[in-house]
From TrEMBL:
Its main location: cytoplasm. Its cofactor is FAD. This is Flavin-dependent monooxygenase. Residues 2-337 form the FAD-binding domain. NADPH binds at residue 40. Belongs to the aromatic-ring hydroxylase family. TetX subfamily. It comes from Streptomyces filipinensis.
Amino acid sequence: MRTPVTIIGAGLGGLTLARVLHVHGIPATVYEAESSPAQRAQGGMLDIHDYNGQLAVEAAGLMDEFHAIVLEGRQALRVLAPDGTVLMDKADDGTGGRPEVQRGDLRQILLDSLPAGTVRWGHKVSGARTLGEGRHEVTFADGSTVLTSLLVGADGAWSRVRPLLSTAIPEYIGKSVVEFYLFDADTRHPAAAKTVGGGSMIVPTPGREIFAHRETGDTLHTYVGLSEPQDWFAAIDFTDAAGATARIAEEFDGWAPELTALITDGDTAPVLRPLYALPTGHRWDRVPGVTLLGDAAHLAAPNGEGANLAMLDGAELGNALAAHPDDIEAALTEYEQAMFPRSTEVPTFEGAEILGIDSGDTTAQGLIKKDR
């Protein structure tokens, strides 16, 4: 008898798993802390790669829906020096293998593909414990519990399921990103809009980066990368939007005004996002009835692969369970043996050497690849 699957987390990885299981007729329930799909914004753009993320979309049977949300022209890439000199200007000729979509749109097509009631919203996990014989109990913040014989932690960096398998805790990587938005950029911020172009733009320098991309319409989404300890950011009062913006802009004094405008002209309060990672090569011994996927399993510094890998994890786990319907442990072993090495393989950005980006600087490459 096929065992229903309990998935913690309704991100892209967890939803992909639920969808692939549904395609194969295997029931699953997804528990999500957010109260609804609209509780918070789902982040910016994602480039979905033909060698991992798109394979997951295909396994989910959603390629037509995926093509319908692709934003044309967004694979264009410009790389500039701090003085505004263009170092690389690559047009989107329609042949690239990394089409861009809005993360929220991708999540929505996955949600729409699942039977009603698959996702149980408003279920924040407070802990999980092993009961033996492959069974586990998950406890929610409201005191309710659920018992399961197949538990999947798809609950991100601070997974509540991970402690069942590993003592690893994410550590700060020494860099944070501060986000800004510029709306109606073509009319209200024309110089910045022209500089970014129709796709993405990055200015990579040691310890200081500005990356921006054009989202739906003429919205510009800016990520400012700063290599500083957490105490440095703690000294900035981010509740004072104007003051925090001015402090971040100080770090780019002397840069071209069309670049610093991506910070100083922001239409939203700056949002600080510290970057964390699990130990490289994080893995665990097989524990009956439980596994992890996505950031819960292999949180890394931004490297252009995070969301894509999470989706591929979900698809491959779903396919493994479908291939071994009467042997959960065989399915989980097969999945983990493929997932562990895959999560450590980071393709090098083709222009890294030309642009002076160290091949090991996955954060700079990840900003170029626009996955995080």
